Q: What sequence folds into this?
């Protein structure tokens, strides 16, 4: 096996992808909550 140095890999692309994923999940959850509140108010 080749010599492996822990923490030597460039992970900027993975960090950007993870940040985008977290952002999309957060926005999706907020939209779902707002839709449920709207449905509750309209049906009220």
A:
């Amino acid at each position: 096996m080749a010599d492996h140095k822990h923490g030597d890999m460039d992970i900027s692309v993975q960090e950007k992808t993870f940040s985008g994923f977290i952002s999309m999940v957060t926005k999706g959850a907020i939209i779902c909550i707002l839709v449920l509140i709207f449905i509750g108010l309209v049906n009220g």
About this structure: The mean pLDDT is 92.
